[in-house]
Amino acid sequence: MHRNSPTHDLHDADQVRARIGSLTVIDVRTPGEYASGHVPGAVNIPLDQVRRAVPEIAGAAGRGEVLIVCASGARSGSACELLAGRGVRAASLSGGTQAWAGRGYPLERPGGDGTAPGACAVPRGTWAMERQVRFTAGILVLLGTVLGAALHPAWLLLSGGIAGGLVFSALTNTCGMAAVLAKLPHNRPARADLDAALERLRSGGDR
Q1: Is residue 2 a part of any domain in this protein?
Q2: Are 135 and 81 contained in the same domain?
Q3: Which residues are in the Rhodanese domain (predicted)?
């Protein structure tokens, strides 16, 4: 029931496009995903850092509407619910960056020096989170199958567990594997980059 009754507003890409100049946009994807292309003007605060950023986001919400963005809408919804639990109202971009790009709207990418306003520096070639999840799940399923055939059938439980996890992820629109992978060093922002993003929120951002 909770999943079917979100505690936050949903805006589609057309609505956001029409009001982009009046919104504080926060992208909660990993730095690598953000660098691959984001809604223009978005500040990068990865989902696992949102709790730390609550005071700055609350300040932005006091000045105007806050829009949370991710790849497809799942992580932004989680961020909105987390913020709602702390008395901060925010909206989510329905369908995420994928829907934005699907409507033909432009994506902002880092410049030649590898930086963009609100960006967190990332190693070159970092994969998007969904690609990391597919790769990791595939490796684990393959590993379980091979070890199950070569060593002991009990290893097949690994493949079955991953398959069950993917089904649960689809049904609940959540992804535990993504949450785990987001904690790896290459998916986390440097402290200085995160501090710069928080300062941008405090100062009102670059609209």
Answers
A1: no
A2: no
A3: 19-109
Domain range for 142? 129-181
Cβ atoms within 10 Å, residue 134: 14
Whether 63 contacts 200, CB under 8 Å: no
pLDDT in tens, 4-49: 445 678 899 999 999 999 999 999 998 888 888 899 999 999 998 9
Whether residue 162 is contained in a domain is answered as: yes
Segment 59-75 mean pLDDT: 93
As for how many domains the chain has, the answer is 2
81, 7 Cβ separation under 8 angstroms: yes
